Amino acid sequence: MKFPENFLWGGATSAVQCEGGYDKGGRGLANVDLVPVGQDRYAVGSGDLHANDFDPQAFYPTKSAIDLYHNYEEDIALLGEMGFKVYRFSISWTRIFPNGDEKEPNQEGLQFYKNIIKECGKYGIEPLVTISHFECPMGLVEKFGGWRDRRMVEEYAKYAKTLFEEFQGSVKYWITFNEINMVLHLPFVAAGIRFDEGENRNQVMITAVHHQLVASALATKLAHEIDPDNQIGCMMAAGPHYPETCKPRDYWKAMEDDRENYMFIDVQSWGYYPQYALNWVAKRNAEIPFIDGDRELLRNHPVDFVSFSYYSSHVSTSEENRTDVTPGNVFQSIVNPHLKSSEWGWQIDPLGLRITLNLLSDRYRKPLFIVENGLGAKDRVEDNGKIQDDYRINYLQEHILAMRDAVSEDGIDLIGYTTWGCIDLVSNTSGEMEKRYGFVYVDLDNEGAGTRKRLKKDSFEWYKKVIASNGECL
């Protein structure tokens, strides 16, 4: 009932949700900078409402976020104090190429991440770097229309190659795209896509994600050529779909929903589009924009490992127009009456994590990496400065037990586990600060007011013991 001795315990953040400093160090404007809090958030994120610049009447929390840009030494020291073995962070594309189409990278941006990696090295923390975590330079959105344009592949390859060369020997684990299946749910956030009236939205999304799949394969090729020790992973937003009943139609719908989640990871892992994916595209009056060399590139350069986020399972039904769906999540699901829910309506299913690990292991036969898992909750600072978050400890404890069962009983090849938002950050879904995931509290409210002081929660010491005991002391 033990984890491997070299198991990588840690946590994860994304640049846009924690760094701030959106206009510092030569950084350019990114698509995700322009997603406001409030009623227009989903419309902008989905590409229906075009955003070209900041609206002076709106609030954009990621402009300053928790200001990791100026506090990374303190923040990484806290991760080191917990004993992190790995820290998953993303690199802001626009810190390296501010508009996306520059010939030479921004040296100040490169130095910032060299400093972060150096700080990680002080504490023996392995970097796990996401190359693109919901980020596309607005310069390329304006110039190309985001990932709908084939020229994005070349710009991404230039960016990835720069990272592989600059951080050679310092970074081993890479993820090409965060939650690549999110293109079908938040196209502007995931691919810089803004829709024009009357166009075939499915064709645009399929075109964009095909370009990302080609870019991922090209990045994998470059990474292995530059440093054979590089390990490249894909990533999906995961969680099994349970049929609502034993009606065959419900089971079929659950299978279809699962396949839609797997579709792009199948390509990155297997090196080709499976037949069901080709059928899925054709049924939506779309086609995959192959050009010469695409199929060979995909086939010859699959990823080394499969990573995923897991927050909840889902329930599928063949009935239409159901209203009893879970709130607060872009992945719509029928409410599961057998599960409890978080304050944001995300249903809590630890066994679903073990199921997911087994499903992915059976499907891909590659090492797996859980790179996001956690509980978003409202934390309260007591008068004595303490933050009692037993609810978070219980959530993580149950998920780690399920993970341990998958490793020790089911024989799952699992590289590591990085909890989401190890330091409180801005929620991607809602833009709120009060939806907190971290072991470290950041004094900041939903309107951006606060000292940004870091405070340790009760879960901080708990996770420290978990890591020190390699998952035995829960």
From TrEMBL:
GO annotation, biological process: carbohydrate catabolic process
UniProt-listed Pfam families: Glyco_hydro_1 (PF00232)
Alphabetic keyword roster: Glycosidase, Hydrolase
SUPFAM superfamilies according to UniProt: (Trans)glycosidases (SSF51445)
Top-level lineage group: Bacteria
Gene Ontology CC annotations of this record: cytosol
Active site: E372 (nucleophile)
Molecular functions per Gene Ontology: beta-glucosidase activity
Keyword Hydrolase set for record: yes
Gene3D superfamilies, A to Z: Glycosidases
Family, similarity comment: Belongs to the glycosyl hydrolase 1 family.
NCBIfam families per UniProt: PRK09593.1 (NF007158), PRK09852.1 (NF007356)
Name of the molecule in the record: 6-phospho-beta-glucosidase
Organism: Trichococcus pasteurii
